[in-house]
Amino acid sequence: MRNILLSVLIAVATFAADLHAEPARVSGLDLEGFDRSVRPQDDLYRFAGGNWLARTEIPADRSNYGTFSKLEDDAKDALRALVEAAAATRNAAPGSDTQKVGDLYASFADTARIESRGLGSLDGELAAIAALRSTRDVYGYMGRAQRLGIGAPVRAFVGQDGRDATRYLVALNQAGLSMPDRDYYLVDEPRNLKTRAALAAYIEKLLTLAGRKDGAAAAQRIIALEKRIAEKHWTRVENRNPVKTYNKVTLAAAAELTPGFDFTTFFAANGPQAAVITEFNVRQPTYVRALAEIVRDTSVEDWRAYFTYRLLDAYAPYLPKKFDDAHFDFRLAELRGVKEPAPRWRRGVELIDERVGEIAGRMYVERNFPPEARTRIRELVANLRQAFDLSIDSLDWMSAATKAEAKRKLASFTVKVGYPDQWRDYGKLVIARDDLVGNLLRSAAFEHERGLDKLGKPIDRTEWMMTPQTVNAYYSPPMNEIVFPAAILRKPFFDPAADDAVNYGGIGAVIGHEISHGFDDQGRQYDGGGNLRDWWTFDDNVRFRERAGKLAAQYDGFKPIDGKSINGQLTLGENIGDLSGLAMAYRAYQLSLAGKPAPVIDGFTGPQRFFLGWAQIWQRKYRDDELRLRLVTDPHSPSEYRCNGVVANIAEFYEAFGVKEGDRLYRPPAERVRIW
């Protein structure tokens, strides 16, 4: 009896102690995804995600799949329920958000009506192309194409003036290629030759479906024209230079910079709002100069064929099934290796996001984004800012004068989290339930006019360049702002229930990445006011370029497929963002501990969990064609190298996992790069 009573007393005491104990902490790590046969000192990416890579199949309708993709799926599932409910509301008030979202989605879902309309909604545009008779007409249609969202073969858009960020300015950018990059036309390797043949078949198919009887011959002339255009395109590395691509000119003086190009006719066809354009930025002057010669030397008949094809290509996914299938076969199957089209509902949701994204975004955040998440992320941003400020102080390669300028720029950053404080007004956009292509034509014109309407007005600092349901983030140099949409602020990037280490390694490093873009090889050329201005001393410029060059050389040495290297100069800005952002996030994590030791959770120390948190957000698989395409076009390195390529430069990673000489991720100290 006495023993029973003692046992009861012990049990009660234990229960009382448990009531006052701290709850067990959650690491936030996907332990099932780990491959413990791999050493983190050799391959952190596969240690943290090897089992995930082994068990994950790329869906047949995708070219790649990873951590970002899972969150994108979640966001699209949430939007699907919202837009399908809107589409089922047949008595929505005309012009209301519900009517616009519901009717646009319904117009895409109604495949029977799409088949019955055929090319009917494009009749006006096809007739306008058929009516071209002169070189002046060609320039006029180039301008008209801007209202359709077609860059053929230039694209005009309204952004901020690079040297006066308080005003809007029209910019003219090279465009006009069907394939992803000039290399596809100019580099004669087997894969490119195959793609060129597929392009010829695609062009012929579209033209033949549209009723032309010379589809094959016209396709060859169009490809020859695009090759001439490609030969004059600037490379992607050249286009990353914000000084070289700033060439503001008045309309009156444009003939001196780009003789022969008929800007007067081009802008007049942009619409009545274009009448206010008196100056603009020609981003690639030599291209526009050469384009004037190409226009002069190419027959109007060939331009008619080219414009017809470009129109059909742009709208093929929204035309009868034969056009849609041809578009899939080239754009997704041939170029990216995708096996089958995405479900119709998913494509419809993507269309909603593209055309009325902020209406859908408002619906999304009302149901999927708790207000307290905004507060927590802003706290993390403040910690990252403090870490970056301290890092500037500790730089041994930067002078006091440049440090002072860097600190002023850092202090002037604007932070946007979750969703816009002021939503976009779609009041002038007309959406009809029975006219998909008409909806898209009106939507393109609406966005074009919205851009031109900005000219002469103050900068709208409430505007977002991504929708809240986008799984991404960005930094804008002329706005000097970092922006984090709601859809990325979720597990595994951010888990309110998880220990801070993984959150700092995930969303903390993403925040640090975006801050670091203000100080990468491009962003560093803008000051705190968003203006292109060299605020660096000569010696600091030299030292920065030396460090950046070492980082570019590291990535040049990575060969993800077929012996093809990452382009270290093309990816330099993103690699600097990764390297500096992760370093800043680690410093911010240490600051958050306030001198207290981090607990061991799931067998890992705080520093180890931090780097594992970074590794797990980069889980991704690519189809081979997609990976090849990205190596040519993408300023981001493939995911494996965004993990392993970065941590090999960070001393704290060596300390966390005891990395030593002989381990695969070991770099001698003299070869490690630290920039910020």
Structural topology:
Blueprint: H1 2-20, H2 44-55, E1 64-66, H3 67-87, H4 97-109, H5 111-117, H6 123-130, H7 135-146, E2 154-161, E3 164-174, H8 183-186, H9 190-209, H10 215-232, E4 248-250, H11 254-257, H12 263-268, E5 279-282, H13 285-297, H14 300-315, H15 321-336, H16 344-355, H17 357-368, H18 371-394, H19 400-411, E6 414-418, H20 436-452, E7 474-476, E8 481-485, H21 500-517, H22 538-556, H23 572-593, H24 606-616, E9 620-622, H25 624-633, H26 639-647, H27 651-657
Parallel strand pairs: 3-5, 6-8
Antiparallel strand pairs: 1-9, 2-3, 4-5, 7-8
Question: Can you put this structure into words, describing what you see?
Answer:
With 676 residues, this protein is α/β, with parallel strands linked by helices. The protein is built from 27 helices and 9 strands. Helix 2 (44-55) crosses helix 24 (606-616), helix 3 (67-87) packs across helix 4 and helix 3 (67-87) crosses helix 17. Mean pLDDT is 95; it is low at 1-22.
